[in-house]
Amino acid sequence: MKKRMRLEKEAGYREFFGEIKNRIRAAQYDALKAVNKELIGLYWDIGRMIVHRQEKNGWGKGVVANLAADLQKEFPGVRGYSRDNLWRMRKFHLEYRDKPKLAPLVQEIGWAHNLVILESCEDDLEREFYIKMTRKFGWSKNVLIHHIGNKSYQKPSRTRRILRRRFPSVSETRRNWRSRTNTPLIFSNSASSTAKWSWNGLSLPG
Description:
This protein is mostly helical.
C-alpha cells in the first residue's frame, strides 16, 4: 500500500497512467466505430434481401412477421430482429438504394440516428445535412432530435456558421487539444453535450 501511495505521487506515473488510459479508450472508440459500421451494413443487407425476395417471389407482408419470429427463435436474447425493426431495415434500404451520395454516409452514424433522420426529414438535402452534422459534431440521438425540432436545417448560413464555431467538431477539438498538450483527447460517452461522443446510436430498437 505504501509503495502504491509513493508511486501515485510521482508525476511520471500519473502521466504514464494517463497515456495507458487514453490508449484503452481510443481502442474502445475504434471498436465501437467498427461495430457500428458492421451493424449498419448488416441491416442494409437484411433490408435488401427482404425487398429482393418480395419482388422476386411475390411475397407479401407476412414474410416479415415470419422472418422476425424465426430470427428471434434462432438468436434468443439478441435485440434488433423484431418485426418492426425488420420493416425499418426494408424502408432504410428502399430509401437509399438509388442514392449513391447518401448511401455511404448512413454507415457513418448510428442506427438510432439513421431512424430519426429517415422518419423526420422530408427530402434528401435535409437528410444529408443532419447526417453530416451528426458525424461532424458527434451528436447524440437526443441532440439530433433537438436540432431537427429546432429546424436547424432551415436556418440561414450565418446561423450554421455560429453553430459550428460554438461546437467545434470532434476531430477539430482533438487536434487543438493535442497541439497544446501533446496527448490525445478521449471523449466521454455523455449524451448531454454536443461536444462529446455518444453511442446511443448503437442501441437496438425492437
